[in-house]
């Protein structure tokens, strides 16, 4: 039995993952932004429910502190919470911290949460960080990280997901040999979730396909020791070239550290 923290567990893939992990007997800590939906899935899984808006860095820090107050160790962190493409033509949004919304939730929140929880993840002999990324990626312009010019919700989402992949590779390298592995995946394409419905896209994959791929990264013993990998479903694949450029990744990481005061 593992202790698993899943962010974005009140709906969609996160909810399905929570139900599947509970059925396997794992101890769950579930994060969500919507109190009622979070309470429902927590009751169904016997999990501890922790509500937070990950667009707010102070709330992200409080979430990490609450987890640390409750537990000494953590076996798996699943960074699943995300803001999708948005409705067609929706305008650019900034968080209360002054950060473009998709960058804040899809990249900076998992960047910060992973680092805040690292002391807990280092305590077991083995632990995993699983980042739910996307096959939809777009090159990142470090000179316009907030997309103040030519904003598009789909491109903002894709840029943030590539940034998450870059951080996966960085953190995996930093934690090599510690017993903590860090991997990311594109679970499935356009599953029937709220994010896809809001964007007015027709579903392509089933939720079950995405669940199977994600559950594998969380619990499959065959992946013990596998780190710094990106999976498209259950296949290890390559991503955009920026993610393999050490100088670019270092520059991006420096921006993330500055934006999160970490």
Automatic annotation (TrEMBL):
Claim: Oxidoreductase is one of the keywords in the record: yes
Keyword Oxidoreductase included in the entry's annotation: yes
Annotated Pfam families: adh_short (PF00106)
Lineage: superkingdom: Bacteria
Coiled coil: none
InterPro entries: NAD(P)-bd_dom_sf (IPR036291), SDR_fam (IPR002347)
Keyword tags: Oxidoreductase
Protein family according to the UniProt entry: Belongs to the short-chain dehydrogenases/reductases (SDR) family.
Protein name: 3-oxoacyl-ACP reductase
Classification of source organism: Bacteria, Bacillati, Actinomycetota, Actinomycetes, Micromonosporales
């Amino acid at each position: 039995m593992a202790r698993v923290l899943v962010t974005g567990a009140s709906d969609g893939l996160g909810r399905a993952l929570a139900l599947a992990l509970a059925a396997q007997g794992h101890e769950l800590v579930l994060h969500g932004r919507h109190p009622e939906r979070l309470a429902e899935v927590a009751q169904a899984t016997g999990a501890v429910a922790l509500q937070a808006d990950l667009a707010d860095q102070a709330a992200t820090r409080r979430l990490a502190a609450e987890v640390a107050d409750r537990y000494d160790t953590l076996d798996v962190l699943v960074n699943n919470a995300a803001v999708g493409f948005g409705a067609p033509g929706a305008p650019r949004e900034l968080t209360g911290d002054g950060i473009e919304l998709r960058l804040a939730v899809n990249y900076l929140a998992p960047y910060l949460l992973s680092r805040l929880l690292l002391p807990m993840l280092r305590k077991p002999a083995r632990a995993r960080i699983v980042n739910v990324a996307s096959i939809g990626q777009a090159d990142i312009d470090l000179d316009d990280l907030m997309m103040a010019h030519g904003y598009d919700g789909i491109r903002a989402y894709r840029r943030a997901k590539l940034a998450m992949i870059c951080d996966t590779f960085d953190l995996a390298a930093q934690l090599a040999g510690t017993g903590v592995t860090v991997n990311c995946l594109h679970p499935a394409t356009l599953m029937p979730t709220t994010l896809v419905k809001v964007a007015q896209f027709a579903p392509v994959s089933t939720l079950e396909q995405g669940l199977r791929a994600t559950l594998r990264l969380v619990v499959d013993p065959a992946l013990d020791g596998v780190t710094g990998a990106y999976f498209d479903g259950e296949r290890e694949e390559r991503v955009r070239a920026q993610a393999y450029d050490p100088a670019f990744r270092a520059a991006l990481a420096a921006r993330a550290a500055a934006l999160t005061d970490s």
